[in-house]
Design brief:
Number of domains: 2
Strand content: under 5%
Largest sheet: 2 strands, antiparallel
CATH superfamily of the largest domain: MetI-like
Helix content: over 70%
CATH class of the largest domain: Mainly Alpha
Number of helices: 13
Structural class: mainly alpha
CATH topology of the largest domain: MetI-like fold
Amino acid sequence: MGEIRGDRVPRAAIGTVAMAGIAVMLSIVVFLLKESLPILAHTTLKDMALGMLWYPARDEPSFGMLPLITGSIGVTGLSALMALPVGVGLGIFTAMVCPGKLRELFKPLLEALGFFPSVVLGFLGMVVIAPWMQERLELLSGLNMLNASMLLGVMILPTVASLTDDSLMAVPKDVRDASYALGATRHETIFKVCVPYAWRGIAQACLLGIMRALGETMVVLMAAGGAAIIPESITDPVRPLTSAIAAEMGETPVGSPHYHALFFMGLILLFATMGINFIILWLEGRRRG
C-alpha cells in the first residue's frame, strides 16, 4: 500500500505536465484560428488555395498561396528524397554493422550534428553553394529549390539516422539470436527481421525529419531564392510558406488582411503536420491488423 500511495505524487505530476502540454497546444490552435480566419472576409478559400499570384500589399491585393504551398511541398519532398534513404542507411550501419569502438565515436558525433545552427547552414548556402551552382550549372541564380533542399537534407539527416539507430537497438537480442540460429545471414537478419520489427520507430524517425524540413525557416529564407512562383525545375527559386511568414510578418500592419493571410499560412502548416501524424497512425493500425 505504501508503494501505491508513493506513486500518487509522480502520477499527479506527470498528469499535470501532460494536461499543461495539451492546454498549450489547444491555445496555439485557438490563437491561429482567431488570427487567420478573418482573411476569409477578404478572399475565398478557393482563391487562396488555387490562386497563382501572391501580392498582398497592393491596393487590390491578391492572396494566391498556390506557389507558396508548392514551394513548401517541393523543398520538403526533395530534401526527404535525398536525406531519408541516407539517414535510415546510416542508422542501420551504426546499429547493426558498425564496430563497437567506432560506434562510440560515430553516434555522439552524429547526434551533435543535429544541433548545427540552421542560420549557419543558410549562410553556407548563400556564400558557398549558391555561387558554385551558378557557375557550374550555368544558372541565373544559385539560390533555388535544389540549394535549399540540399541544406534541409543535411539538417534532418542526423535526426533520422539517430532515431533509426535507437529503434534498431531496441530490437530484443533474442530476436536476432533466433534469426541467426535458423541459419539467416547478417544481411537477412537486418532486412528481414530487425528492420520489419523496428519499422514503427523508423517511420517515426522519417516523420520527424519531414516535419522538421516542413517547418524550417532560416535555411529556406536564405537559400531558396524567395520567388513566389511555381517551379518548373529543381533549379528554380521558390518561396515556401515558412520563408514568406518570416520575411513579411515584421513589416505587416497588425490586423490587416496581409497579417491574417500570414497566420493562415501558419494554420496550413499546422494542419499539414497533423495530417502526417494521422497517416503514420493509420499505417500503424494496418500493420497491427
